[in-house]
Every structure is written in C-alpha cells, then in structure tokens.
Design a protein that fits this description.
There is one protein chain. By secondary structure, the protein is α+β, with helices and mostly antiparallel strands. It has a domain of 227 residues: Sandwich (Jelly Rolls). It is 40% helix and 21% strand. It has 13 helices and 11 strands. The strands form 2 sheets. The protein has a 6-stranded antiparallel sheet with strand order 1-3-4-11-6-9, with helices on both faces. It has a 5-stranded antiparallel sheet with strand order 2-5-10-7-8. Helix 10 packs across helix 12.
C-alpha cells in the first residue's frame, strides 16, 4: 500500500491543515471541519487491486471532527462507486440517505459515493481504525434503484458470510501491496464475488454468498495469513489453520482439487516475495542471504534450488539483472 497522508510526517501545529488537504485528495474527496484538535493522528494508505481500491484509515484526535462529502465535491469528482465501510474498532458515526449508523467493532455498511454523506470521528481511548473497499457500481449487476435501500445501513451480523468478509478485508489491508496484488487475478475474482454476493445476499437475491464464494474467501484469507507470517520458518499447516480459525482437516479440504498443497503454496509465496525483494532497487545493498532469511528460509542451498526450480534462474542471476536494469525502467 502507498501512504496518501500521515500526520506524523509533519509538525504538530500543521497536522490539522495537512489532514484536511489529504482528505481533499482522496478517491472520493471530503471536506473536514471542526475545531482543530491539539493532538491529531490521521493516516490513510491505499492499494489498487484491479478495479478495487482497498483503503486503510487510522484516526485519533482529542476533539470530534466531521468529514463531509457534499454535492459540490461530488460534482467536482464522482468516481461512480460503491464503498464497503468496515469499522475495525468503532469510533465513528455516519449518515447517508437519512440513515444513521454508530459503528461498533467489525460493523460493515454500504455507501454510494455519488450521494452526500457525513462522518463524525469521535474521541476515544484508542485510535479509530477503518478499512474501506471501493469499487465501480458498474461491476454490480444490480440496478442502483434496487440497491438504494441498502445505502447507509448496516449489514446484519447474522448475514451469511458477513464475518468472513470482515476478517478477509482486515487481513487484506494488513498485507496489501500494489506490487504484489495489483495483477493477482485470484484476488480480483474473490473481491468481485464477495462484494456482489454481499449485496445480493442482503437483498435476498439468488447467487449471494455461495459455497464457492466462501471457499474463495477462505483461500484468500489463508494467502493473506501466509504473507503476513512469511518470516516465520516454523509456519506450517497447523499454524496457518489456527490463524485462520479453521481446523487442520478443513484447511486440507479447501486445498482438494487445487494444484498446490498448503506447504507448496507457502513455498511459492515465499519465493515470489524473495523475487520481489531481489528486484527492489531500495534493497540492492541487502544480501541475498538476508532476503532469504527475512522470508523464512534457513538453508541457502535449499533456497537456491527452490528458487531456480520455480523461476528458471538463480537468485544471483536475478540480483545481477536488477543491478543492470536502467534506472526508471520497470520489468
């Protein structure tokens, strides 16, 4: 993910105006009003995955701040998108289309970015955390009029698949990287199926959160867990299952009729992460051994064999090619 704004990067006296400027540069720009707080933490990170934008926000202030998406701002910039809004730990109130929501931890609601809305960031003992998934309305094969009753309302907690989607979005925000996820076709598929399925399920339409969608969500969650723990050389199916709140038996069942076992997927993701690091100019002075170790490999000989088997070249050859690549030219 890339950081859109982070108030920790500026002087405390400049943070409020800096946050206001950052909010005006968001995908769906908003205006911020309210008394300037003495202490303010505002961080927003974004990753683009196909047609989907995953956005993570952390906010803490000693006074309430209101964010408005007005008709004027919509006329100036209308991405024509829906947004699934997930409050990780509460601490925000939102209003759209006459519907008001005071979010608790893990609450999810749907918003239409082409309609005005207002959000109030409340004060509390811990920073507010939010994950937002924004996607074009054109991706949803449901008329805007049919979806309108859902806008600004909570997705019921007992809705099939809702909790699984919440956990998936949190894990995705923790691990999302433009370089690693932008062209991941599996991730784009699961995002499309879970967003459309969630809306269909909420409207009691067929083909909502289907068994296929739940399986895709579980597999995407497993990949996110593996990516987050690649540095752990002891990572194994039992630990992956525990982190995903699954039984080891169900974990292996998910991998039936797939091309990889859990350990093969772990190895492939490790090697792809190593490849990405070897090609990263900012890591040019980091040794291959340190890169290998940072991604959970302990034996250089095993790493070299696995790497060449998957990519057809050695880590040393990749590093050499990366060094020779002309500046500014993408692979």
């Amino acid at each position: 993910m890339y950081v859109l704004y982070d108030t920790r990067a500026v002087h405390p006296l400049d943070r409020y105006e800096y946050a206001r400027a950052g909010a005006a540069a968001e995908l769906a720009p908003v205006g911020i009003r309210g008394r300037a707080p003495r202490d303010l933490l505002a961080v927003m990170s974004v990753a683009q995955i196909g047609d989907f934008a995953i956005e993570a926000v952390t906010w803490a202030a000693d006074s309430e701040i209101v964010a408005n998406r007005t008709d004027r701002l919509i006329r100036a910039c209308d991405p024509e998108c829906y947004r699934i809004f997930l409050s990780v730990n509460g601490g925000v109130r939102m209003e759209q289309a006459g519907n008001q929501v005071s979010f608790r931890a893990r609450d999810i609601a749907l918003y239409d970015l082409s309609r005005p809305w207002q959000a109030t960031h409340t004060t509390g003992p811990m920073p507010m955390q939010v994950v937002m998934l924004t996607f074009p309305r054109a991706l949803v094969p449901i008329t805007r009029a049919a979806a309108a009753p859902l806008v600004g309302t909570l997705i019921p907690r007992n809705l099939l698949g809702r909790s699984l989607i919440a956990q998936f979005l949190i894990e995705l925000a923790d691990t999302a990287s433009t370089a690693e996820h932008e062209s991941d076709p599996d991730l784009v598929v699961v995002l499309r199926e879970c967003t459309v399925g969630l809306i269909r399920q909420r409207l009691d339409q067929p083909d909502g959160i289907t068994p296929r969608t739940r399986r895709l969500l579980h597999m995407a969650s497993i990949r996110a867990i593996i990516r987050r723990h690649l540095d752990n050389p002891a990572l194994d199916p039992e630990r992956i299952a525990e982190a995903a709140n699954l039984s080891p038996r169900y974990l292996h069942k998910l991998f039936q009729n797939t091309e990889l076992t859990p350990m093969q997927l772990l190895k492939r993701l490790r090697l792809k992460a190593c490849l990405h690091s070897l090609l990263d100019p900012s890591l040019a002075m980091t040794s291959i051994k340190d890169i290998m170790t940072a991604h959970g490999y302990l034996r250089p000989d095993q790493f070299a064999r696995d790497f060449k088997q998957l990519f057809g070249v050695s880590p040393t050859q990749v590093r050499s090619l990366a060094v020779q690549r002309p500046a500014g030219r993408e692979r």
